[in-house]
Amino acid sequence: MPEEKKIQCDNCNISISESEFLKSLKVCPHCNYHHQKGYYLTAFERLNLLVDGGTFVEYDADLYSLNPLNFPAYEEKLSSDIQKTGLRSEILTGEALIGGYRTAIGIGDPHIRMGSVGSVIGEKITRLIERATEKRLPLIIVSPFGGGMRMQEGTISLMQMAKTAAACVRYMETGLFYISVLTHVTMGGNAASFASLAHVIIAEPGTKYGFAGDPTRASIGMEMPPEVQTAEYQLEYGMIDMIVQRKEMRATLIDLLDFCSD
Ligand SMILES: [Zn+2]
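Above: the input record for the complex with zinc ion. Below: its predicted structure, written as tokens.
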């Protein structure tokens, strides 16, 4: 029998068998470190973790990005990223039951163009919010968008901030309930639009969350203590509401949906 692959925890350095690591949802069973680079969850892994099995109905799976600026090799790289995730489009959106509560849910995948938000992600999130408004469904958006707005689409990607923010405001004016789930890394324009406009903002432990990332700050010579852009620091200053372990996220969402149901 070949020996099972071992993964060394980036935090406590203890070796864990791959099967144990995957069973604990890519979280170290010894020190509870939620592993980051190289071990991000895909959108489908998160979907399976959060929703009632077999209840997900996908929206808008046929939307795909064009290359409006003729950015070199953009279409090829984007299509290769999407294929690796098993998704049919750039983000998973649809509706599903969570603990029996019908919910509109969007789940990003950090493996697509380094988790940047292009026009299709903005459009699919906006359509998700608008459908949730029409159908009067609670809304959950899981953000793993650390790459900011997608530079390969220029101003068209920046416009997604205003579009998604406007949809969020119209949704919340109707008295419906929006939960934003932040996962490592959530930065840039999405942190400054739909990800931060929810009634309840939940982060996984160790999530990096803020606006200007390291390269941006370095380019203007701005120094900042590294802990400022962590979920733990942001919780202390009221920018987020809760930090929830990955294994407890589904139960927490069900509690919140239950609390806010009619
Ligand atoms: Zn560990």
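Notes for the reader.
The pocket of zinc ion is lined by residues 9, 11-12, 14, 28, 30-31, 33 (CB under 6 Å).
The chain has two domains: 1-39, 41-259.
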